């Protein structure tokens, strides 16, 4: 007669029947769970820090380029302004009338009153130099 019953000593990994057999799988699961949590935490810290560092580098490079462009633009504006001022001063300093006036003032010793001709009777307002005398204080 065939024996259709299972032997009582069959090995089924249950915690009630054999606590020693079930224990290593629980420890293994907790270990794997800890490893997974550690990897997730490391990724949650590492990925944003690398991304923030890359963005910071891009931002610094962008600001540096903008400041370089701004500085060169301002230097160009200043150079253009100085060239304009130089052209204006050359126009005045190379004018024949200005040179003549400067020479007359130099010959008079810096006294502008000596450059104004007076009439024979001593009346300076009677001559054409009258308007010049009125402007002398200016």
Give the helix level as a range of percent: 55-70%
Give the CA-CA distance, first to last residue: 143 Å
In DSSP terms (H or I, runs of 4 or more residues), the helix count works out at: 3
Shape type: rod-shaped
Beta-strand percentage range: under 5%
* DSSP strand count: 0
What is the radius of gyration computed over CA atoms, rounded to a whole number of angstroms?
Answer: 51 Å
Low-confidence stretches: none
Describe the structure.
This protein has 3 helices and no strands. It has helices at about 20-95, 95-105, 130-135. The termini are far apart. It is mainly alpha-helical.
What's the gist of this structure?
By secondary structure, the chain is mostly helical.
How do the strands and helices of this protein lay out in sequence?
Blueprint: H1 19-93, H2 96-107, H3 130-135
For the structure shown, list the relevant keywords.
single chain; 3 helices; 67% helix; 0% strand
